[in-house]
Amino acid sequence: MSDLSNFKHKPHWLKVPLPKGEKYIQLKSLVHKNNLATICESGNCPNMGECWNAGTATFMILGINCTRNCLFCDVNPGKPLPPNPEEPLKIAESIRLMKLNHCVITSVTRDDLVDYGASHWANTINKIKELNPNITMEVLIPDMHGNISHLKTIADAKPEIISHNIETIERLYPQVRPQSNYVRSLNQISDTKKLGVITKSGFMVGMGETTEEIFTLLKDLKNHQVEIVTIGQYLAPSPKHFQLVEYITPQKFEEYKNFGHSIGIPKVISAPLVRSSYHSESQLND
User: Fold this and answer.
1) Does residue 246 carry a pLDDT above 80?
2) CA dist 271 → 65, 213, 248, 249, 279 (Å)
3) Residue 34: is its pLDDT beyond 70?
4) Options 3.50.50.60, 3.20.20.70, 3.30.450.40, 3.90.226.10; which CATH number does 4-201 get?
5) Residue 40, exposed/middle/buried by CB under 10 A (0-12, 13-18, 19+)?
6) Are strands 76-77 and 65-66 parallel, antiparallel or unpaired?
7) pTM given for the model
8) From the DSSP assignment, how many helices (H) and strands (E) are in the chain?
9) What are the structural domain ranges in the chain?
10) pLDDT tens across 60-98, in order?
């Protein structure tokens, strides 16, 4: 487990200004007024000020309690409520009011649901597109337990990007993601590609992995047909979470990006403050 020393002396490249600005205030008000959940807030994202001032946010559906307890994550574990049937319309209307051209949707993991939330995902995507016909969308989904029919339910709603984060190297899965499976997550990425949707994944560094382990992870992602990869610095949300081992330098992030490109991954976004949905629209359009 981590101790307070992990929260001191952050290097200068990880320091960001406090969120402020008119657009940020407007978006914060809209999110809270409509009782919406965002991973920006629940995940304590360091880019929230920048993204919200740009008029973008990552909405989180299917509640605020997750059926898993990953030790890197700041989302609350616990017994979730049943899916809210009004949520797809609420999300869609909020996006319309924000006049977004692109949006990102994610969710907690719902192992308690028969289809792991796939039908709710599809309803949400369809409603967003119905009210916002010109929008493009990235959906960041949990694993579907290897069930390609549930994955197809989401893909058939036609989001432009389906992202599923691998999160860390295989060796750390028993400690960091004990209820998940490294190979199953990789297979979901290749299954997504077979369904004709742009594939994306992301992971964190600074948890004790070696350069060779990162290279192996990137090779695994390439072999499973990933098209976009994000790499960012792990920051432990609290002393109770997985221990932060080291801060990775910007030069090392550049090395990881260059290696990813060298093995044929089309897009690798690698920097300390990069998060899964960071500049998602530009990843789609570049």
Assistant:
1) yes
2) 29, 18, 9, 9, 12
3) no
4) 3.20.20.70
5) buried
6) parallel
7) 0.86
8) 11, 10
9) 4-201
10) 899 989 999 999 988 889 999 999 999 999 999 988 887
